[in-house]
Write a structure and sequence with these properties.
- The complex is a heterodimer of chains A (445) and B (603).
- Chain A is of the alpha+beta class.
- Chain A is built from 5 helices and 30 strands.
- In chain B, the strands form 7 sheets. In chain B, strands 2-29-28-27 form a 4-stranded antiparallel beta sheet.
- In chain B, helix 1 crosses helix 3.
- Chain B starts with a helix and ends in a 15-residue tail after the last helix.
- The chains are: A alpha+beta (445), B alpha+beta (603).
- Strand 1 of chain A pairs antiparallel with strand 1 of chain B.
Chain lengths: 445, 603
């Protein structure tokens, strides 16, 4: 007779001293772990609920401006520094970790229209309604020394937008024309214009650094190559775009914030049709900024809210608002991908988390694992109706809520009418146009 | 074998006679043959033919290894390349155990985003599958028990005493009898980890003990008839079905609750992942009690009279009830009617058991038959005739079936795969058997009978390797508390109980189709419709007309091929079916010459 009966040695299963960690022998046999899917579903549900409970995105409000904030600039090398310009010509430098203002400059008379930090981080430029471009030192002057710009250029017309080249000492402004400036000269080295119009914003491409794009008041977005004397091409839309932002990772994509409450992501090679249309705002979109990963962007709107969109999605994944926040004029996504800054009409700059439920600070290894696991679970079960309902639920201010409802009614009416027209006309006479095509009027080369 | 001869000739040269076998040598026999031929063929001796070919293959193999080496770019300090680069291979049949589902068919090309997602998720699941199989292969500590007789010795003739003599003391101590003749017969239940034992005597005696250390935790007499006892989620609480109501006691024997909504309970089952206590009563009601919040979840009137045969399917938490008319019914708390009704026996059903994997159900009836059913198709697999009939059944983790016939407990092995002639083990107890339970993770079968309780050894019954996060017999109090919190957090809602628990991760096609139809109606066109393929024009004259047509045709051909493949498959299947049917027909009735004028049914 041969026999063996299970007889475990407890020493193999129990820790030796109480200072050791507990032993947990695993057996991944699926029959020993039944209800795999329902349990995962329950976990996903819990994770989703917890995410909503922990979603506290608002971090701080930076007050100190005496007029509406009109523009902001990220520091190119320091994460904790933010610059902001107000409508009374005041420029403030903020320390984001301490939530305080470290420096105040009365830079311009009238609005500060644009600001940009030089790529090296030692100085920054500002433009204002007083037709000047000023270069400032990033270092504050010594005690008792008056704030003076390093350099001042007096332009002929009002400037409305400003951006600096990524690598060398050139910058671009826009106003009645798009001008390219050399830092050493007081006159533009190149001037672009395409018909009579005025421009509202200009942005350098972060990868193909000689390319730039601008939004014009004749409802067009114009692309330029700095090395050429003529603009490359432009796309004319049904309504005017306010600003645009290049995707820093896939730099052939850019997203523009339009007056028709939508944002449009274009591929610069094929302007005939936007890659994606981003809806959800209920008023004109005023500013847009990409996250440094290039997967999401944040938009600021006249409807007193900011929204975060995944780059290919039609709808936003997040909406931030507070009772006191008025029309949001400018918005920036921090370079560490963790925060969003918004500047609004009621003189405040607000600091938000980019992921509302994210835990800030140093995470332990197990915390990180748990967060990753929960993230994956939420992703896996995101289409289940109960999970989806919880994950999507957001509280909206009454005016946004009612207006959004109104818009759906209007959209539905338009669609119904089109359907009826199609029904009563010759087949093929009323073509089926997708939402993306509708908003492009023409592409000019 | 020629190469083996060569190896024999040179045994005196080798110092080590037998090289211990490694895992990489285990799989293929050819490799073993190769090894000596490879290393010890001397130059002056004429090498046998067989070994020469071996040499060639080995040379090519070496080259291959070297190539692999170069690719990995690792080189040992001794300059000897690692002969076994990479991790040990995992055989396919071991991976099969962890395979969650079949591979998804190729996603069509125009859904390129989905395609990417599917590809990455498939790669991930493959990795987990491989890693779990590797864990299974290397890191499981224990091997299962077994019992083998000598030649012409039946294992069922081996007595418990013989086994106890043959095994070590700790294992031998697991065979013991408790003489409790006063309050019997006894029902019993082991806790989920298998450490605690709960005994309930018919005449009111309730005791719980740590059966391995034989330490008594509590002992009470409820002064009433006890119909059934059951542990709840941990060792701290248990439920007792008494004459009238259902009671809940803690491990010190203090009455925590008397639940008056549950009356005349005869049998209970605890669903550990749902925190549900399912009870079957003499009045024909199947009731579910949520023990985490103390609420009745569902009460189902089965309209089938007295319910005293009950078991659960551990894979999907469906309750199986046996009835006096020979049917077995399957119940979930979400439906007022039975999910499945099966006629299993002539005469009443005496006992039901479902195995760990949830694929087989074993029933015994008044017709003295023992039947095995396949729960996937609800069809009988095997049918056995037991002269005395089995009064109660129990299935172990590793699929051993114990059947109590009067005062004899028989254990069978492999009842579903092959027709069994003889029991694996048999043991006689003192009174009629009343309760039967395998202890989880131990080779122990607990038998409650008229004269008390017997714990008998059944080698090979228990799962040797437990999952520490699920149920750990060696857990500390702290670990138990943490487990409890975790388990409560992932308590599955009772409305998720269904025949297929994996349904939740599958596509709901019906709803999807309905939703899609609604959308099409609302929009006036199909948003998911595939556009006609339009080849992109290439720049600077590189897009010739011929090229455009070629690209167009390429796509068209691909689509066509898909269609052809599917239709061919369908045709082959239907042909097979037809052939099958034809065979049946010809054997049953000869085809008559006039059949050709009959109207043929559509294929």
């Amino acid at each position: 007779m041969k026999v063996k009966v299970l007889s475990r040695n407890p020493d193999d299963y129990v820790r030796e001293t109480k200072y050791d960690i507990q032993r947990v022998p695993r057996n991944y046999d699926p029959t020993l772990n039944p209800f795999e899917v329902p349990r995962e579903y329950t976990r996903a549900m819990n994770a989703t609920k917890l995410e909503r409970v922990l979603a506290k995105p608002f971090l701080a409000s930076l007050d100190g401006h005496r007029d509406a904030v009109n523009c902001m600039a990220k520091h190119s090398t320091s994460l904790s520094t933010l610059l902001s310009g107000a409508c009374d010509g005041e420029v403030k430098v903020w320390n984001l970790t301490k939530h305080n203002c470290v420096r105040t400059i009365q830079a311009h008379e009238g609005f500060v229209r644009g600001m940009v930090v030089r790529f090296c981080g030692t100085s920054f430029y500002s433009i204002g309604d007083d037709k000047t471009i000023k270069q400032w030192n990033m270092e504050a002057p010594g005690y008792g020394v008056e704030e003076e710009p390093i350099n001042t250029i007096l332009g002929k017309t009002v400037f409305t937008g400003l951006d600096h080249h990524q690598k060398n000492g050139t910058f671009a402004t826009c106003g009645q024309t798009v001008d390219i400036w050399d830092e050493q000269r007081s006159t533009p080295i190149r001037s672009f214009s395409w018909g009579v119009e005025s421009f509202s914003s200009v942005r350098f491409n972060p990868v193909e650094t000689e390319l730039l794009a601008s939004c014009a008041s004749d409802r067009s977005i114009v692309l330029y190559d700095m090395r050429e004397s003529m603009p490359l091409k432009k796309v004319i839309m049904t309504m005017r775009s306010n600003t645009l932002s290049w995707n820093p990772m896939e730099a052939f994509y850019f997203t523009c914030a339009n007056e028709d409450y939508n944002l449009y992501t274009y591929d610069m090679r094929y302007l005939e049709e936007p890659v994606a249309v981003h809806v959800d705002h209920v008023s004109a979109v005023l500013d847009v900024d990409y996250s440094p990963t290039g997967r999401e962007f944040v938009s600021a709107s006249f409807d007193k809210s900011i929204r975060i969109f995944p780059k290919e999605n039609r709808n936003s994944r997040e909406v931030y608002h507070t009772k006191r926040m008025q029309h949001v004029v400018c918005v920036k996504w921090s370079a560490d991908n963790k925060y969003v800054m918004s500047g609004s009409d009621e003189m405040n700059i607000r600091l938000w988390k980019a992921n509302a439920a994210e835990k800030l600070g140093v995470l332990s290894h197990r915390e990180k694992l748990a967060a990753n696991y929960n993230q994956k679970l939420k992703e896996k079960f995101q289409h289940h109706p109960k999970v989806k309902r919880i994950a999507r639920h957001r509280h909206l201010p009454k005016h946004i809520y009612t207006e959004a409802k109104e818009h759906t009614v209007m959209r539905e009416a338009r669609r119904r009418k089109e359907r009826n027209v199609r029904k009563h006309s010759k087949p093929g006479a009323v073509p089926m146009l997708s939402e993306r095509v509708k908003h492009v009027v023409a592409v000019v080369k | 074998m020629a190469s083996a001869e060569v190896a024999l000739k040179h045994t005196h040269v080798e110092k080590k006679k037998k090289v211990s076998e490694r895992y990489w040598q285990g799989s293929g026999e050819e490799k073993k043959d190769e090894a000596p031929g490879e290393s010890h063929v001397p130059g002056d001796q004429p090498a046998p033919l067989g070994s020469q070919t071996n040499q060639q293959t080995s040379a090519s193999e070496k080259k291959k290894k070297y190539k692999a080496e170069g690719r990995h770019g690792k080189k040992a300090i001794t300059r000897k390349p690692d002969p076994f680069p990479g991790s040990a291979p995992v055989p396919e049949e071991k991976r099969l155990k962890f395979r969650r589902k079949m591979k998804i068919d190729q996603v069509p090309r125009h859904l390129f985003k989905l395609r990417r997602v599917v590809a990455s998720s498939q790669a991930e699941s493959e990795i987990t599958e491989k890693e779990s199989a590797r864990h299974d292969q290397l890191l499981l500590q224990e091997d299962a028990g077994f019992l083998e007789g000598d030649e012409d010795e039946d294992t069922c003739t081996i007595s418990q005493e013989d086994i106890v003599d043959a095994v070590d003391i700790t294992a031998g101590a697991k065979y013991f009898n408790l003489d409790l003749s006063q309050f019997g017969p006894y029902r019993l239940d082991y806790s989920k980890t298998g450490r605690q034992l709960l005994l309930g005597g018919r005449r009111g005696h309730v005791a719980c003990l740590d059966w391995q250390t034989k330490q008594l935790l509590c002992e009470i007499n409820v002064m009433e008839t006890v119909n059934d006892v059951k542990w709840l989620h941990s060792e701290a609480m248990y439920a007792v079905a008494q004459k009238k109501w259902l009671y809940i006691y803690d491990s010190n024997g203090i009455e925590l609750h008397c639940i008056r909504k549950f009356n005349d309970v005869l049998r209970m089952q605890y669903l550990p992942y749902h925190f549900l206590l399912a009870t079957a009563s003499a009045t024909g009601f199947l009731q579910y009690l949520d023990v985490s919040v103390g609420k009745e979840v569902a009460a189902v009137g089965t309209k089938a009279g007295r319910l005293d045969v009950m078991c659960q399917n551990p894979q999907n938490a469906i309750i199986h009830l046996g009835h006096s008319n020979g049917t077995v019914t399957l119940w979930s708390p979400n439906q007022k009617e039975a999910l499945v009704k099966m006629l299993c026996h002539q005469g009443g059903v005496r006992s039901v058991a479902v195995d760990k994997t949830g694929t087989y159900m074993v029933t015994s009836g008044m017709d003295k038959k023992l039947k095995v059913f396949d729960l996937r198709s609800f069809k009988p697999f095997q049918s056995y005739f037991l002269p005395a009939g089995a009064s109660s059944l129990a299935l172990s983790h590793r699929g051993l079936l114990s059947a109590a016939t009067g005062d004899i407990v028989q254990v069978y092995r492999d009842v579903w795969s092959t027709p069994v002639k003889k029991p694996y083990m048999a043991h006689k107890v003192h009174g009629a058997v009343w309760g039967l339970h395998f202890c989880p993770y131990e080779d122990v079968l607990g038998v409650g009978h008229g004269e008390g309780f017997t714990s008998m050894l059944v080698p090979g019954a228990g799962e040797p390797n437990f999952d520490g996060l699920d149920s750990n017999p060696y857990r500390s109090a702290k670990q138990r508390q943490e487990w409890e919190v975790k388990a409560l957090l992932e308590k599955i809602q009772p409305d998720l109980i269904s025949l297929d628990p994996g349904k939740l991760s599958q596509m709901d096609y019906a709803t999807f189709k309905q939703k899609h139809q609604d959308k099409v109606n609302a929009l006036g066109y199909d948003p998911l419709a595939r556009d006609k393929f339009k080849p992109r024009m290439r720049k600077k004259g590189r897009s010739s007309t011929g090229g455009v047509i070629r690209r167009k045709n390429q796509v068209a051909h691909e689509d066509k091929r898909e269609i052809i493949i599917t239709t061919l498959k369908e045709k082959a299947e239907s042909a097979k079916e037809r052939k099958k049917n034809d065979n049946g027909q010809t054997s049953a009735v000869q085809r008559s010459a006039l059949d050709r004028f009959k109207k043929r049914a559509a294929p």
